[in-house]
Design a protein that fits this description.
The protein has 2 domains: 2-104, no CATH class; 109-162, 2-Layer Sandwich (CRO Repressor), CATH 3.30.240.20. Helix content is 58%, strand content 11%. It has helices at 2-5, 9-13, 19-40, 49-67, 73-96, 98-104, 119-124, 129-138; strands at 109-113, 116-117, 147-152, 158-162. Strands 2-1-3-4 form a 4-stranded antiparallel sheet. Helix 3 runs antiparallel to helix 4 (49-67), helix 3 packs across helix 5 (73-96) and helix 5 crosses helix 6 (98-104). The longest helix has 24 residues, at 73-96.
Length: 166
């Protein structure tokens, strides 16, 4: 019966790692992951299988750098709280300041302008012409010449503005 009621309350709630160390680890790891994803993984709207795999692997790899060797609930709560804080703080700063808005939300990239494909931008964003044509068809456009403007937005979505009918 002792197996059900013998709880080590100290191990559950008393941290073995300094809480400030967890905050610093969480902060540095969050910023590294944020900058990596922001500058190297801007996708086209939805997450693909490789993107999901990347996120899972980053989470697994980052866990060790963030946590060290913590075991208590308190340490886990502090670490998760640090990550949530930075996530909210960047969203808030991106909404309220121009400097962080540029960091959090990249400028749109033009893919088609006045019916002309911007191939260098497609190549830079690793979007094939077949993928772009599929997106245009989803927007009811079957001819590139009907596109006034098509952009990869800072959110990763692709927006399409059709030319006015003659």
């Amino acid at each position: 019966m002792d197996i059900f009621f013998d709880v080590d309350w100290r191990a559950l709630f008393v941290p073995e790692v300094a809480l400030l160390e967890l905050v610093i680890r969480g902060t540095l790891t969050y910023w590294f992951c944020f900058l990596y994803v922001r500058f190297f993984r801007r996708g086209a709207g939805q997450l693909g299988v490789t993107d999901l795999l990347l996120i899972i692997l980053i989470a697994d790899a980052a866990q060790n750098s963030m946590a060290g060797d913590y075991k208590s609930i308190t340490e886990g709560v502090v670490l998760v709280g640090t990550l949530l804080f930075w996530n909210y703080a960047l969203d808030w700063l991106g909404f309220n300041t121009n400097l962080f808005k540029k960091l959090v939300s990249p400028e749109p990239v033009t893919l088609v302008k006045d019916g002309q494909l911007q191939q260098h931008n497609l190549n830079a964003q690793m979007i094939s012409q077949d993928d772009l044509n599929g997106i245009l068809r989803e927007n009811g456009i079957d001819d590139l010449k009907k596109v006034k403007l098509c952009q990869l937005e800072g959110t990763g979505n692709i927006s399409v503005v059709q030319r006015e009918g003659k």
